[in-house]
Amino acid sequence: MTESVFSTEGSIAPFQQIVQLCETYNALPVIDDSHGLGVLGKSGRGILEEQEIEGFLGIYTASLGKALANSGGMISGKKGLIDYLKYYCPQLVYSTALTPAVLAGTEAVLEIIQSEFEVIKSRLVSYQQAIYESLVEGGFTVVPGEAPINSIQSGSKDATFILAKKLYEKGILSTPFIEPSVPVDEGRVRLIAGANLSWETVAEATKIIKGIGR
Ligand SMILES: Cc1ncc(COP(=O)(O)O)c(C=O)c1O
Predict the structure, then answer these.
(1) Number of continuous H segments (helices) and E segments (strands) in the chain
(2) How far is the CA of 139 from the centre of ligand 1 (A)?
(3) What is the CA radius of gyration of the chain?
(4) What domain range includes position 166?
(5) Using a 6 Å cutoff on CB, does residue 30 contact ligand 1?
(6) Strand locations in 4-141 (E)
(7) I need a labelling partner for 112 at 20 to 30 A (CA). Which of 22, 118, 171, 182 fits?
């Protein structure tokens, strides 16, 4: 059972190998592709497309609240499993169902991904690269990642919050991670430039980042 993209540093699970191991040992692979769906793969279909896993027979789950820009989640697997969840999954049985607005919103985003993924993805990658370069120029230590995420090694809890606050004061929203999300004194400050941003915004951010770094 694994995530596809680990969102703190942008590392990606070797899921193809995990699926092969599951076949060898007769185990059921479970993937949470919340951060892969709409980001990974040639057409944004997520980890299975990215790692060319065909005929996947495990359990696939993802949030609708990340690249799909809505709320709620989805799960797919064998019919018997889905039938079971309909009766035994408390979040499904005792919570309000996804609203029509969320479903329509999700459908609209899926259509955008289908028709514009190439452009969106290349924007994501170039923004990440520009921010990475400004961080390195500013003297920050950036954790190498494979997903369009930049994660700064910020050290202690105090240093992590101070850096996130400095960025925030200049108009940049980052995500600080402290324990227990990361080991003690191995804080991270994560920056993600969404494809919805403009080049002007990203260019301004890179200037601010270099200034704070210096
Ligand atoms: C890997 C992963 N799965 C699931 C979730 C939960 O998503 P949601 O907030 O839409 O329930 C998160 C939230 O950050 C996540 O990072």
Answers:
(1) 7, 10
(2) 32
(3) 19
(4) 118-213
(5) no
(6) 5-6, 11-12, 30-32, 59-63, 73-76
(7) 171
* Chain Cα centroid distance, residue 28: 23
Confidence of residue 92 (pLDDT cuts 50, 70, 90): confident
Q: For residue 142, what is the enclosing H or E element?
A: strand 142-143
pLDDT tens-digit series, residues 2-50: 999 999 999 999 999 999 999 999 999 999 999 999 999 999 999 999 9
Query: Does residue 34's CB lie within 6 angstroms of at least one atom of ligand 1?
Result: yes
Counting atoms of ligand 1 from 1, which one is nearest the CA of 6?
A: 1
Cβ within 8 Å of residue 108, ≥6 positions away: none
Distance between CA atoms of 141 and 145, rounded to whole angstroms?
A: 12
Q: Are residues 122 and 185 in the same domain?
A: yes
180 preceded by cis ω (within 30°)?
yes
109 within domain boundaries: no
Residue 55: CATH number of its domain: 3.40.640.10
Q: Which atom of ligand 1 is nearest to the CA of 35?
A: 1
Q: Rounded to whole angstroms, how far apart are CA atoms 210 and 199?
A: 17
**Span from the CA of 82 to the centroid of ligand 1 (angstroms):** 20
Which residues, other chains included, contact 23 with Cβ-Cβ below 8 Å and sequence gap of 6+? Answer: none
Does the pTM surpass 0.90? The reply is yes
Measured between alpha carbons, how far is 88 from 183 in angstroms, rounded to an integer? 35
Instruction: Evaluate whether residue 108 is within a structural domain.
Output: no
Contact between 171 and 202 under an 8 Å Cβ cutoff? The reply is no
